[in-house]
Prior knowledge:
The chain is an alpha/beta fold. The chain has ten helices and 13 strands.
Amino acid sequence: MSPIAASNPYIGRFAPSPSGALHFGSLIAALGSYLRARAMQGHWLLRIEDIDPPREVPGASDAILRTLEAFGLHWDGEVLYQSSRTEAYEERITRLLSAGEAYFCQCSRKQIQAAGGIYDGHCRELGLTAGAIRIRNHAAVASFEDKLMGLVQVEPGFAGEDFIIKRSDGLYAYQLAVVMDDAMSGITEIVRGCDLIEASCRQLSLFRQFGAPEPDFLHLPLACAEPGFKLSKQNRAQPVDDDDPAPALLRALTFLGQAPVDSDSPERMLAQAVSQFTLDSIPRQREILLGS
Ligand code: GLU
Ligand code: ZN
């Protein structure tokens, strides 16, 4: 680590999935995590979460990088592609399986739904050798203190569930990849949208089971098209315009409760936004309806 990194231990990140171009909703997560990291004089890393090929849109990774550049959201170091990490994920799974910390499960979604929606550990002692792989969860996390949203609580059943870490189709689960990568990168605080606020409990369980230091969590309000529906490609969120970043940047700053900026180049706008950034101005609401 550079001397600067050593004296400034904050490490944040933005971790988009290449399932489409950046739209206003994902810009908020990018901008919020960027402003917080820079205001803490920390590092801001970029990770492309490309381990779900069926959901990936060709060209989306490169388009995301170009958009971040056009918006002046310059990251530190190399981009980490999750697709380059599959060996590490597989090794971890193998170790968990042989230590009895994970097991194969062949229950269908239907069976689990019929049993109340929470997995009851049915396959834990069956010694199966194929199927989905579940963590034997002995570090249930039912609540945590979010840096913005305050106390977050989930149902005890959900918290203690043996959740999936590798899917039956062979894809690594988001929860496993995200925790292994955040741990490897030394992320000290995760800033992202409230759609993942409850997943944080599962992720905290994994950090504990892996004996990795736990990051802080800071969840930003979600931009919603309708109550309960975040902006997404599915509800026709338009990609942000790389050729004219200023208006979207201003809107995103306003969305995050930050004071307006008066310059016009994205770099200068961001420098000003960093210098006047206040966490306390971000609305403590899990969702904000756009156009309301
Ligand atoms: N890749 C996830 C997404 O785009 C975000 C992961 C995270 O920030 O933990 O929704
Ligand atoms: Zn099962």
